Every structure is written in C-alpha cells, then in structure tokens.
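User: Design a sequence. Structure:
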C-alpha cells in the first residue's frame, strides 16, 4: 500500500510538472512569434527619435517622469502623431525594459476577437479553438502592454478590462481558473474619451482608470520644425532598407513638405518619404520625386462643393482618401445609419472608422 501511494504521488507530481512545462512552452512559443514580428517591424530607439524632435521635448519630459513608475498612461493625439513611439519610449526608460512591450490595435479587431486576443482562450472555447492560446496580457507579463485605439474596445468587454487593470487578474475565454499577471498599461487613442463617456460609449470608471497620467501628442502641423528632422530620419532609414545612397532632400523638396499641413501627421510623412525614396535617383531627393500630397480637408469649406479629385498618377491611398472624404461630406459626416457613409460605401461603421484612422481623415472644425 505504501509503495502504491508513493508511485501515485510521483505520477501526480510528474503530471503537474508536465502541465507546467507545457504552459511554459506555449508562452515561449507565443513570445518568440511576437518578438520576431516586432524585430521585423520595430521603430528603433524611440527615446532618441523623440529627443531629436524639438516640438516633442515637453512630451519627452513627461515620459521620463512617468516611465520609472508603474502608473497607467493614456497617450492622446490625432491619428499618426506618433503615439506608439511615445509608448515605446516609456517602456525603454522603465524598469520593465528587459521584458516585452506588447501592443494590440483594438480598432483592427472585430468585437468577437478582441476578448480572445487580449485574454487568450482555452481549447474548445469556441468552434475554431483547436488548442489553448496565450493572450496579449499573459504575453506582456512583467512588461508593458500598449492598448492602441483603446476607445474602440466594445462596451460589453470594458468591465473585464477594468477588472484586469484593478486586480491584474482575468480568465481566458472558456476558462474558469484566474490568471494573474504583472503588466504595466499604456493606452493610446485619437478619440476624445471624455465625450465618449458622455455619449454612453465608454465607461467612466474605465476612463478614469486609464487616464491617471495623460500625455497629449501635438499634431505635426503644430510643430513644423520637426518635419525636416523626421523627413531626414525616414529618408535615411528607407535608403538603408533599399540599399540606395540618399543623403537628404533638396531645398525645393523640403519647402514643399513644410508647406503641407499633414492631416495624416507623422504616418503620412513616413509614407510620402518611403515613396520618394523608391523613385529618387539620388543622392538628393527632389521636389519631382515627391508624390502628390493628400489634399487637406479645407477648414470652413462649403460641404456641398465638390472636392477636386487626385490626378490619374496619384497613389491608391490618396485616391481612397479622396473618395471616403467625398462620401463623408455627402452624408454630413454621419457614419452610421441607413443614410450614413458606411451604408453608402457598403461597409461596417467600425471598418470605416478604422480606414479613416489609417488614412488620417478627420472632420475639420467649423
């Protein structure tokens, strides 16, 4: 009997060790896959980039103060201003820099996938759940989690997100066992969350929990001095990637960039420089190498007046942006409903909002 009990104890211990090893393997596989994607698409030294931008010095000062704490940070600003760069800088300067910085774009996921993406799921939790999957919170354990476009988190999921922020604990989809994590949250949004709270689209308690330390990233049009610095950095990075010798921009090219108001902000500038680097013969990129710049939405323009269309040689994203803006103007900037822009375009409102964010489309103030 004693021998049987001893063997049973060994078997139970081995089973527990096997379970622990399996869980560790799953986590390592998920981390490796995620980190490979990050290395392929990384932005380099975020702190160094922020340091070079005169218009972001006040932002960097706030980053340096909050980075050493575990405080939740809400990074706000228009689409394409560099909110993810600020989040990376916070992580780089924090005691968690040796652990992963994991990001998830909440606007790019359907409402049915957000919960599984954030918290993971157990095998058999739903039809396609063939095996257990580690979510972004577990992946970021010990590190930092960037919730990009946090304003797009579905209202029904917000209580569970609030619980994780408060208790650092959650259950995977289809699971009953609590999973504890140690994660620092940095959230980013181009929406006015306080107005979303007033409209009943965002929980007030979650908003206050996220906005403990807000940081506002100014748009590129309010810091024109950074345009030349960023353009030079982007051009050199693209030259290295393309294996070309590009040393800078001509005066005419730089003047053209400075004259634009950059409705898509830094993201638009990066796209413009990438296209410029491809066509430039070098070593200096000229004004002729620049693509047609996306036309800004005129402030105070007559909404009924037709917008001039882009040229036949315009890039696809410029054409798409023009078409979407034209439809939004015709719908009075109403996105949802049977007469809304989404219905006219034959797409879901959430998809349209995601495309608007990607294309740098925003309604001009009256």
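Assistant: Done.
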């Amino acid at each position: 009997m004693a021998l049987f009990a001893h063997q049973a104890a060994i078997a139970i211990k081995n089973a527990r060790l096997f379970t622990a090893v399996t869980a560790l393997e799953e986590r390592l596989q998920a981390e490796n896959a995620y980190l490979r994607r990050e290395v392929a698409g990384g932005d380099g030294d975020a702190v160094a980039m922020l340091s070079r931008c005169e218009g972001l010095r006040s932002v960097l000062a706030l980053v340096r103060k909050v980075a050493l704490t575990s405080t939740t940070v809400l990074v706000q600003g228009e689409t394409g201003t560099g909110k993810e760069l600020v989040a990376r800088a916070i992580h780089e300067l924090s005691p968690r820099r040796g652990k992963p910085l994991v990001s998830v774009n909440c606007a790019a996921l359907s409402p049915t996938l957000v919960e599984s993406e954030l918290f993971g799921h157990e095998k058999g939790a739903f039809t396609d759940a063939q095996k257990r999957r580690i979510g972004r919170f577990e992946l970021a354990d010990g590190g930092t989690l960037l919730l990009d476009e946090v304003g797009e988190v579905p209202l029904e999921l917000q209580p569970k997100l609030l619980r994780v922020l408060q208790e650092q604990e959650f259950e995977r989809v289809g699971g009953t066992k609590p999973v504890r994590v140690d994660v620092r949250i940095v959230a980013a949004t181009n929406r006015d969350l306080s107005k979303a709270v007033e409209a009943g689209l965002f929980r007030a308690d979650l908003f206050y929990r996220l906005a403990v330390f807000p940081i506002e990233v100014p748009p590129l049009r309010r810091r024109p001095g950074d345009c030349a610095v960023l353009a030079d950095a982007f051009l050199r990075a693209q030259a290295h990637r393309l294996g070309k010798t590009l040393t800078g921009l001509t005066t005419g090219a730089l003047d053209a960039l400075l004259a634009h108001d950059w409705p898509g902000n830094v993201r638009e500038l990066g796209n413009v420089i990438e296209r410029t680097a491809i066509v430039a013969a070098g070593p200096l990129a000229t004004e002729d190498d620049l693509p047609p710049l996306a036309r800004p939405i005129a402030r105070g323009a007559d909404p009924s007046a037709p917008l001039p269309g882009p040229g036949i040689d315009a890039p696809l994203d410029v054409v798409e942006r023009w078409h979407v803006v034209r439809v939004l103007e015709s719908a009075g900037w109403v996105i949802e409903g049977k007469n809304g822009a989404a219905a006219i375009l034959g797409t879901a409102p959430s998809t349209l909002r995601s495309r608007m964010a990607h294309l740098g489309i925003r309604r001009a103030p009256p």
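Residues 34 and 40 are 10 Å apart (CA to CA). The radius of gyration is 24 Å.
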